[in-house]
Amino acid sequence: xxxxxxxxxxxxxxxxxxxxxxxxxxxxxxxxxxxxxxxxxxxxxxxxxxxxxxxxxxxxxxxxxxxxxxxxxxxxxxxxxxxxxxxxxxxxxxxxxxxxxxxxxxxxxxxxxxxxxxxxxxxxxxxxxxxxxxxxxxxxxxxxxxxxxxxxxxxxxxxxxxxxxxxxxxxxxxxxxxxxxxxxxxxxxxxxxxxxxxxxxxxxxxxxxxxxxxxxxxxxxxxxxxxxxxxxxxxxxxxxxxxxxxxxxxxxxxxxxxxxxxxxxxxxxxxxxxxxxxxxxxxxxxxxxxxxxxxxxxxxxxxxxxxxxxxxxxxxxxxxxxxxxxxxxxxxxxxxxxxxxxxxxxxxxxxxxxxxxxxxxxxxxxxxxx
Length: 370
Description:
The chain has about 375 residues and is α/β, with parallel strands linked by helices. Helix content is about 40%, strand content about 20%. It has two domains: about 15-175, DHBP synthase (Alpha-Beta Complex), CATH 3.90.870; about 180-265 and about 305-365, GTP cyclohydrolase II (Rossmann fold, 3-Layer(aba) Sandwich), CATH 3.40.50. It has helices at about 15-25, 50-60, 70-75, 95-100, 125-135, 150-155, 165-175, 230-235, 245-260, 270, 275-285, 290-295, 305-315, 330-335, 355-365, and strands at about 30-35, 40-45, 65, 85, 140-145, 160-165, 180-185, 195-200, 210-215, 225-230, 260-265, 320-325, 340-345. It has a seven-stranded mixed beta sheet with strand order 7-8-9-11-10-12-13, with helices on both faces. The protein has a six-stranded mixed beta sheet with strand order 4-3-5-2-1-6, sandwiched between helices. The chain starts with 12 loop residues before the first helix and ends in a 5-residue tail after the last helix.
């Protein structure tokens, strides 16, 4: 998760658009160039095939980049850097590369080493992994270091879109700070007919963020607010594996009593995306808890940033809230961006047979006040 402050990052809308385009290329299984002190050609490991690896090898020496979390799972010796670079060996075909990125078969093949670790990890390699996380792909990459920044003719010849490492690093903060209201409409809900949905998005693209405003909460008083990360399985399908659907509907019921705002944020799976959340579910079925599953996938336990929520509240005219949550990280996540949390309002629901362990992990490992 990127570090963020209230200061506007010195990056332009053009840079954010380049990041969006690079994300699209990676999701289509194409390589991109990430420029910086040490430029790289980058291909998402989970998208690799043998032909693509051969194409990369023709450009130079291929390396495998893994997060420190994933490297620890693979028994690669402890590293200080958040990204670990591994020398590409003759045994590394596409099937092995995908297996090193995806922990689905770890239990069947627990020992895949030894690995030859490259001693230094340039900052551009961190940007490459950050870009792949933005693409909601598994955070592992094939990299080819370039001796120097490739000229436009070379990039065109190899059909490579390029993006600056600095633009990747600044993207999430910049996109949150650039959010603008694009539409709003009255949407009567079962919980409250007096409801307005306000849509926000950055001007250069990106996911929509929604504010569900119930009633007319006065801006001179702390407003009751719920930060809700989208959950397709819980919100829409009413999955019993989590309590997200209960929290969403329960929050709307509470807001109906006194008015308030629910911010519906595009942060599926604590920021890892729906497909990766399903991968985490598969690992949980193998016996791992929620935190362990995310770490085995190569992610942090929680990848979310709450700057967008703070910006939305400010644009709606509110800077003091009573926060409906059991998660202290949401309290600090708003306060670090200048929103005063005057009260934490508990928001808990009874467990069921399918989510008892999930809720226990929230309490024991993530510090939720349940």
